[in-house]
Amino acid sequence: PGKWEKRGALRQRDMPEVAATPVDELLGRLGRRHEERHLRELGEATDLSNRKNEERERETLESIRSSERLIYQGRFRSVIEINGEVCDVVGEPDFLLRSGNGYVIRDAKLSFHIDEQGPHEILRQIEIYGFLFERSVGEAPLALESYSGVGAVVRFPYLVLTPAIEFFSTFRRMR
Q1: CA–CA distance from 163 to each of 36, 103, 113, 159 (Å)?
Q2: Distance between CA atoms of residues 60 and 45, nearest Å
Q3: How far apart are CA 26 and CA 44, in angstroms?
Q4: Residue 107 backbone phi and psi in degrees, to 5
Q5: What is the distance between the alpha carbons of residues 95 and 106, in angstroms, rounded to a whole number?
Q6: β-sheet bridge partners, residue 115
Q7: Taking Cα atoms as reference points, which of 97, 125, 130 lies closest to residue 111?
Q8: Which residue would you say has higher pLDDT here, 11 or 136?
Q9: How many beta carbons lie within 10 A of that of residue 164, not counting itself?
Q10: How far apart are the C-alpha atoms of 31 and 33, rounded to whole Å?
């Protein structure tokens, strides 16, 4: 599915999805270029980007069980209850990096400044990836990271899911 098919927050609020503008398309190309540049820097990876969704989910878990050094475009899915509603939550982190006995989740972002002060949606998104990783793998990720638009790796500890679930559930309440 393309970016515009994944706009779950809009669908949850019964808001129409709009066609991509030229600026959206430019940002998409720049984001892919940024992500691909970082992939080249990291070296050889298990690349799941061209697989179908269910296949990506299965192969992500198989790659983790096989202790692959670097997994590109993994996919996790979990069914959770939010505000009394059952929700299918999907996360597609850009990179899963093996470190010691676990994995670090890293997502590439064009934003130049990323920290715990903001932009909050980036941190919440990566926290949800951590939650989905834990639900799928049975253990917490070692850390959460973002690769910023200026090439800096910003690390966040994986502590609790509460902020991410609260952030996600606001979309449900706004319907």
Answers
A1: 30, 21, 20, 10
A2: 12
A3: 27
A4: -125, 135
A5: 5
A6: 118
A7: 125
A8: 136
A9: 21
A10: 5
Cα 43 from Cα 64, distance rounded (Å):
17
Q: How many Cα atoms within 13 Å fall on the side-chain side of residue 59?
A: 17
Query: Residue 111 — left, alpha, or beta (φ > 0 → left; ψ -120 to 50 → alpha)?
Result: beta
DSSP sequence for 11-68: HHTTPPP-PPPHHHHHHHHHHHHHHHHHHHHH---EE-TTS-HHHHHHHHHHHHHTT-
**How many helices (H) and strands (E) would you count in the chain?**
5, 8
Looking at residue 3, its amino acid is K
**Per-residue pLDDT tens digits for 87-129:** 888 999 999 999 999 999 999 998 877 765 555 678 888 988 9
pTM equals 0.80
Q: How many residues does the chain have?
A: 175
**CA-wise closest residue to 141 among 81, 44, 76:** 76
